[in-house]
Amino acid sequence: MHLVWLTAWLALYIQFTASTAPTCQLKSLRVEGLKVPGDVIIGATFPVHENKVFPNRNFNDYPGAVQCYSFSFRSYRWLHAMMYAIEEINASPALLPNITLGYSIYDSCDIIPRGIEGVLWMVSGTDEVVLNYRCYAQAPLAAVIGDSASSVSIPMTNILGIYNYPQISYFSSAMSLANRHNFPTFFRTIPNDMIQSLGLAQLVKHFGWSWVGVLADEDDYGQGLSTIFKQEAQKLGICIEFLEKVPILYSESHTHRIVEVIKTSTAKVVVVFSWETYLYPIMMEIDKQNINEKIWIASEAWSTSSALSKNQVFTMLTGSVGFAIHRGEIPGFKKYLLGLHPLKSPNDIYLRIFWEEAFKCRWKNQDILPETENSTLSCTGKEELGKLENTFLDVSNLRMTYNTYNAVYAVAYALQNLYNCQPDKGPFVGGSCAYIKNFEPWQILHYMKNVHFRTWAGEEIYFDENGDPPALYDIVNWKPTTSGDIQYIKVGSYNSSAPPGKELVLIDSAILWPGEKKQVPLSVCSESCLPGWRKATRQGQPICCFDCIPCSEGEISSHKDSTECLPCPDDQWPNERRDICVPKMVEFLSYSEPLGIVLAVLSIVISVVPKSILGLFLWYRHTPIVKANNRQLSYVLLCALTLCPLCSLIFIGKPSSASCILRQTMFAIIFALSVSCVLAKTIMVIIAFKASKPGSNLHRWVGSRLPNTIACLGTLIQAGICALWLGYAPPFPQNNMNSQVGKIILECNEGSSLAFWCMMGYMGILAIVSFVIAFLARKLPNSFNEAKFITFSMLVFVIVWLSFIPSYLSTRGKYTVAVEIFAILSSSAGLLGCIFFPKCYVILLKPERNTRDFLMGKGSSTNKKK
Question: pTM for the complete prediction?
């Protein structure tokens, strides 16, 4: 594409130079080149004039010359940065000693035809341009500095690339110029546009903005940068609410539509990739509609625009933040500029134009230029530059000027390396070197690729494999001045060569936001989800638009905008805010807590009662009421009822292997002994009554053998169940982390649930059998019918343990243990109270009933103590 286009231009130029008189050559008014001789020549093109007039197109005539006007003080300063750098180098004894640099400078007028003409003029080496010809009588051309516009630099580098001449641009930042295949000889001292797109995305991320709009010119600059920005923004989790194209050709309807989109958008931040010329109409309309709440993020194309920041026009741009080309300082440059004078440099054709434009005067015997045609004053040469206040003399923000200065030094250091080449150690065939006053373009190109030096300020200058320099941007903030204008203040920097994560350096406290606020404004589609919550994307909307949902039980999110909640480890649990995991509270029934203390005291108290009754029975062991129904069996039962409450103490305290094994087996065996004794006593009541009838054959069963056998057998069966349980799957301590929220329950795992419920079932069978037999014998004719009290005791026992089952299954943690202890104490107290309290009542309070006759229902008798 470029080669086809270039061929057309060259054909046109050949026809033009061959068919026209010298006076018709492409030399617009006062824009011929500026030459200064030297041992080595550095060429350059600058847009000394900003505006141009193209000739009328008539295909029957030869093309006319392009006329340039509107002298640019800013671009002319770039030109003098080159001249000043060459003066410094020529005066330096350390850099290129005994070698004088000359230059050839051409006004490109920022248009492609003049850029091509300037290149051909420099390559030919003569005033008369001859295609594919180089006058070797002239000093060699080392490189060409320029141009400013990428559209001009592209055809220039296509021509220079044919001959392997290096080209170093100070302002052409187009991404396409980094293509080494298409532009092998192109270098630049301004960063590649792609880098600022990446940097601006990081800047947006730095401020926590996730919801932005984008404006971009509808040319290669705007669309290329916005595409890279969008891709990087997506990687960083930033969403684009709108992306509008800024028209290059003004369109009122298009402008109004863009402003309406900006006005109705919810994004508070707008990133703009545009040139000030195209952006100006949109800003005019935004100002007209008084849209002040937006934050503008500027690309380098307009971040230092004087047209947008001066004359108190766009106050809504206050608080804007943007990337700007790195500002540098050139020592002594201001003094150099103030020393310029047309009489000192009579060959500087541009200096005379500058003087006329700066002082609004006209030199005598000089053609009238478009810029000065209305001037009435005559230039005297006595005008003082120091009294001027214009862009040319403003060295406070040297950006492109600084790039130009560095571009010249890059060529000089490349020449220095060529000059320092030692024979037989050179980089070319056979170790050969190039001669500084007669070298080939491809030889200096080799040194340009490898140039690496530091400026006086310590900044590194070199070119990567694509000819790009290390990207260094200033970050500027637009702040109001006392006069009502806006000034841009440096508040940070972006350095692509810094370590990862440290490219962006910002002084956040120095940034002034719209409304003169210091706090960073928000620009989000949805408010951030706090720790303890997670994001849930809204269906059909960008990922930046979401709802916040609290983390589920047992999960946390430790930072803002978490996309998922993470479960805590088994031994930890979320805190109330669910943003960190904290150790679970360890729970078990301990002696140090009120519940454990109460149950322990009750256990001891209840265990003391049967001991006291046992002592009472031993004291009155010869009385009929004690001797009735197997005195020894009563003693055994009282001992068992003493142990029953005490075995509950094993349930209190931190579970261990020993306590887990003992607590259930001791409880099971002792209670089996107790119930078996009750069962034996119940059977003996019936046998004793039946044996008292005449002709009964039950006399032989009366005595202690049968009840002892029943008590032992009932206990041994339970002991056998417990033995099988311990042998097959014994209980063991475990940390239960799941049964209760936020707690680790230290408990005893029963090992085998079947064995546990078999043990409980067997004890229940004993109790039910005792209850049934006692119930059947409750109406036996006796003044003191023990079967009646056994019935009540078994009724209490059965009710307690039937109630225990659902309570045991429905409680968790220490309360499960408390329920079992309560059942043990309740059933123990029930047995003790129902069976023995009536006897104690008779012994202590009704001794007259403690006789054999009374017990046999034969009336009262005096109490006899035997």
Answer: 0.69
